[in-house]
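4.2 Preliminary Data

To establish feasibility before requesting continued support, the project team ran the inverse folding procedure on a target of 184 residues. The structure was first converted into the token representation described in Section 3, and no sequence information of any kind was made available to the design step. The complete token record follows.
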């Protein structure tokens, strides 16, 4: 990776660029039969971004003077849960998402989380198969995870369930004390 790469925490002023990146990143779904609907889904709202700022963490990846990706996470059922991760269309497949997850896992471990979760498409190569390579495993969601059940219901009502989705979890080990720029 280029030395001009930096991972930092997001601020409220970064919301418009994150919304734009989310729309841009979704373009890749248009290349996969049965997932074109993802290109028409709206980005996360200002309120959702503000909740992340208050309760969790937003991480940005800057490449030079340009934000090219982000990850949003909040506490869910005692775990650090990824709400969204997106990399600009032209930067996908170059390791930036993996770098965001590395920083997120470090942050989660440093903040006392022993597990992280996410929801994703089961059959999209850059979704569940990618997360499996990051040591995530598909899990069943039941009444012991009421907040994750609520997230799945919200995703279904927003139209995300037009293709098979799964919940995934990863156990964390305490990671090194390398700090994320501006992360708390």
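Position-by-position output of the design step:
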């Amino acid at each position: 990776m280029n030395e001009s790469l930096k991972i930092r925490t997001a601020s409220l002023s970064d919301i418009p660029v994150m919304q734009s990146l989310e729309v841009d990143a979704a373009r890749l779904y248009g290349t996969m039969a049965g997932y074109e609907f993802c290109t028409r889904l709206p980005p996360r709202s200002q309120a959702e971004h503000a909740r992340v700022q208050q309760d969790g963490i937003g991480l940005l990846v800057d490449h030079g003077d340009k934000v090219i990706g982000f990850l949003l996470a909040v506490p869910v059922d005692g775990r650090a849960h990824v709400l969204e991760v997106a990399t600009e269309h032209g930067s996908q497949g170059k390791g930036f998402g993996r770098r965001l997850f590395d920083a997120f896992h470090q942050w989660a471990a440093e903040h006392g989380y022993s597990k992280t979760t996410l929801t994703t498409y089961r059959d999209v190569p850059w979704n569940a198969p990618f997360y499996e390579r990051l040591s995530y495993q598909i899990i069943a969601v039941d009444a012991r995870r009421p907040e994750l059940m609520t997230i799945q219901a919200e995703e279904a009502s927003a139209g995300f369930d037009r293709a098979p989705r799964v919940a995934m979890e990863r156990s964390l080990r305490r990671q090194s004390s390398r700090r994320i720029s501006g992360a708390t």
